[in-house]
Amino acid sequence: MTTRFGAAVLRSPDSPFTVEEVILGAGPADDEILVRIAGSGMCRTDLAVRRSAGRSPLPAVLGHEGAGVVVETGGPRTGLGVGDHVVLSFDSCGHCRSCLNAAPAYCDSFASLNLFGGRAENAARFTDAAGGELAPRWFGQSSFAEYAVVPARNAVRVDPALPVELLGPLGCGFLTGAGAVLHSFGAGPGDTVAVLGAGAVGLAAVMAATASGAVTVAVDRHPERLALAERFGAIPLHASSADLPGSIRRLTDGGARYALDTTASAQLINDALRALRPTGHLGLVARLHTALPLEPGTLDRGRRISHICEGDAVPGLLIPRLIGLWQAGRFPFDELIRTYPLADINEAERDCESGRVVKPVLLP
Prior knowledge:
Keywords: Metal-binding, Oxidoreductase, Zinc. Strands 3, 5, 6, 8, 9, 16 and 17 form a seven-stranded mixed β-sheet that branches. Strands 12-11-10-13-14-15 form a six-stranded parallel β-sheet, with helices on both faces. Strands 4-1-2-7 form a four-stranded antiparallel β-sheet, with no helix packed on it. By secondary structure, it is an alpha/beta fold. The protein folds into two domains: 3-171 and 332-363, Medium-chain alcohol dehydrogenases, catalytic domain (Quinone Oxidoreductase, Chain A, domain 1, Alpha-Beta Complex), CATH 3.90.180; 177-310, NAD(P)-binding Rossmann-like Domain (Rossmann fold, 3-Layer(aba) Sandwich), CATH 3.40.50. It is built from ten helices and 17 strands.
């Protein structure tokens, strides 16, 4: 079966996205589904392809926060049916030690499957209208498009009564921030959490920390982001505050038990470590692009630091939990979203990069 549909193609790191016709030469394999995309969140990981020229293959259809409706399945092995509404998340092999230990974000094949188009034996390949080959699926999805062929294990079935076009960011950005707080930290009532960086991931962490009953401090340099964090229950603190670690310690009664850095700033990471109470835990979610020199004393007294990928989440468990919190009014992620037609993807990118919009969602 050949399927023709519209998709946003990035042809080089310094070119704009172009919305054009692409061709899918085959239907889903036994363990795959074909999804009509209702909405796809734009994540900074998508845009990072521009800054990592040569690492991810181009031209490509990006997008890895998709959600939509199943229109075809490869067979009964998928466990899904035509008409099911699904949220799509990252890809994983399902059989390595990490996957079997309920840690799919640390899959042995994570990089090849998500960044470099793995699953070569059955990956559906795109071509453009002229027959030119496009890179294999991005994060198992390539959801900046009208349709996506996806491994069924990437898909989480959701209630069809929900606004599926808004749910895609639960598959990555919001999953990462909320999962770090709820899973990696296990924060609860009486805990103290500092969140550095109030973008999509940081604000999801703030909402999750508030929902868990923790006292939360949000650090950012943009007043409008701090206002959002305060609306979601955090104590706002400007990143330029004098003695930032001391300020956080005062606001958290002697130091935060947990801190989450979303900025990859070496200075803020050291400030976060200094703001921790003894045995405190700092989680990093942003990719570091430079060396991270730690100041003397920052890891004393049982403090520890770890990298957190995809919120340490099993998407099939955390996404329904976040939807339940949202329905209860305790995780208002929809307030961070602005929707754009897929044709306006370059405007959405500009708004995302400038910080004007927290979470763009593209509607094919």
